[in-house]
Amino acid sequence: MCSRGQIPVSCMLRPLEAPFRYLFGPGPSNVPPRILAAGGRPIIGHMHSEMFGIMNDIKKGIQYAFQTSNNMTLAMSGSGHTAMECAVFNIVEPGESVLVAINGIWGERVAEIAERMGAKVHTLFKTPGGHFTNAEIEQALAKHKPVLFFLAHGESSSGLVHPVDGVGDICHKYNCLLLVDSVASLGAAPLLMDQQNIDILYTGSQKALNAPPGTAPISFSERACHKMFNRKTKPVSYLLDMTHLSNYWGNDGKPERKYHHTGPVSGFFALRESLAILAEMGLENSWSHHTEVAEYLWKGLEDLGLKLFIKDKDLRLPSVTTIAIPEGYDWKELLAYIMKHHQIEFTGGLGPSVGMVLRIGLMGYNCNKANAAMALAALEDALKQCRKSKA
Amino acid sequence: MCSRGQIPVSCMLRPLEAPFRYLFGPGPSNVPPRILAAGGRPIIGHMHSEMFGIMNDIKKGIQYAFQTSNNMTLAMSGSGHTAMECAVFNIVEPGESVLVAINGIWGERVAEIAERMGAKVHTLFKTPGGHFTNAEIEQALAKHKPVLFFLAHGESSSGLVHPVDGVGDICHKYNCLLLVDSVASLGAAPLLMDQQNIDILYTGSQKALNAPPGTAPISFSERACHKMFNRKTKPVSYLLDMTHLSNYWGNDGKPERKYHHTGPVSGFFALRESLAILAEMGLENSWSHHTEVAEYLWKGLEDLGLKLFIKDKDLRLPSVTTIAIPEGYDWKELLAYIMKHHQIEFTGGLGPSVGMVLRIGLMGYNCNKANAAMALAALEDALKQCRKSKA
């Protein structure tokens, strides 16, 4: 039958090709050989006891990376967006109020997700690069009485690391849970889930953790668990229902883990290895290392006459640096030149920051001064070659 | 701060350990070195042009494997359940009727997913091992007037391969779309999406395709596209919204692919390799090879005095064989013995077939007579060692 089939498959008889790239954008970042090797190991079954052991290790590794003792800690079988939807779907019931801080793309996404599942969505808004004071947040909480407040710690589209101190306490004063996105910041900028009273925290595997994309650590506080396990309606997604996921991860205290879905075994192997590397290095060392390399990069960029998009040093994300697009240049041309001649990926803006910034990410394995110097040299070359005439 | 942290991470300082296992259950199956190597390659960005080239190859490979010329063909960033939710979320609007054939676990899951998103769910029911006649299906379609009918082609919980001929035509007569699950059957049992008038077909990466779990091919007919792209409400999931996914996969005819989520780059490398292996072998060869090995296994099982759960040979799934649990044995003890002494995974039933069957899967790379002989020898040994006294 297939021989008479209409479907040509000649392209599949060529070998797989993928060029080497320096992934110095906002992620995914290069995966070190040790993590690639872990992800390339022969797999075992998703329900084997040894797999549960590896998942237990991942849980401990996330607890360390998040600085939390939350029992309800696990990794999603999907990217950061899966964790984002999981948080909203499980915590919020249709008709409930949600407050979303939008100062870049991630707040936009959470607002869209919450709207689709039937929440009443209220927003706090700043243009990219802006941030919210605790007074502004408190005022909005008092007004809208949301059950959930979303804040991006690492707003990678603008290069901003948002202050989190005190926000959890304000949320709890208004009986609201605090949901924080640390996809771009985890391991690069200080964040202490328990000390900072964050109720739900998630990240991605492919940023400072340097694993391939496809898994996403997430953790829920006791307070968050109380809300999500005492809801009246079932979450709209069976796949993301924490009742089932908590059992799959051995977090619900039941003696038996039941089949829910088939987790990404290779992805979990890689994630475990990436969390092990962070544990070996130590969180504080990782934070200070990212800051040191970022400061070296920032100085180099200023020496090239470029303007950093985030003026206040303390608000700059150490993992993803944003540069105001220099006058007299086409940003797409700069990026294409650097990719073609230096095999380096930088990126433009994302969502509301498109056309405003260039972005350089040096995360985890990629985060060192040699790479920063290579990035600066490539940019210097591009600035020489790509200047537009004034005409 | 971390040095004062409450979180022990000593477990993360041990190396990752995973034993070798013969994965002769219903999946995941063993991943051959060639696919492991593809998945272990250095990654590139999820939005690089070469990545789009690889995704284009994957699309062609799925079109071949499904025998479809559907433009709307892609791989989900998730396991088979992600494809299942994607199909239901995009095709059905709240309040619409859905008809689900339940003769094992997969129909149960689809019914649950459809109920959660607000569909009116009607079911056709058989106990595990049962199947539906086209007359029964037509009667139910006429009665319930659903917009979508679900049928599992490979019902891996019972070991049944369901006849599909004619079902698409009946569905279309009643203005209903046909959704088919081929997670356990693709590449092992004949299925021709276009010829059989299937509107939505999905599978998983980790069965006969032998890639690690975490990606799921799916395809939509023109008819299905017409329904899902002319709906009044947005699908409840942003992550699974086919408007965005079709753009990400270059299927919507727009010149630019926009960032939606970060796809599992390593998983796509591995999936491309697995589809290439199937294309090299040829679908018809793959089908006949699975049948030949399955018949060898079935004869061997009967020679051991065991009873196959599916009596009619033509209804037996060639990829997953179900055996009635032999009298005088504890099925959990048999499985544990075989795992301990032979490093082989077989499994028990799943969902409604728990306690009714043992399951042996020989899929793709694992599908050969040497493995079948090894499985039979292990089972023979276990039958000798694990007999219960009659007391």
Automatic annotation (TrEMBL), chains A, B:
EC number: 2.6.1.44, 2.6.1.51
GO terms (BP aspect): glycine biosynthetic process, by transamination of glyoxylate
PROSITE patterns: AA_TRANSFER_CLASS_5 (PS00595)
Binding site for substrate: R359
Residues recorded with modification N6-(pyridoxal phosphate)lysine: K207
Keyword Thylakoid attached: no
Record-stated family: Belongs to the class-V pyridoxal-phosphate-dependent aminotransferase family.
Designated name of the protein: Alanine--glyoxylate aminotransferase
Organism: Cyprinus carpio
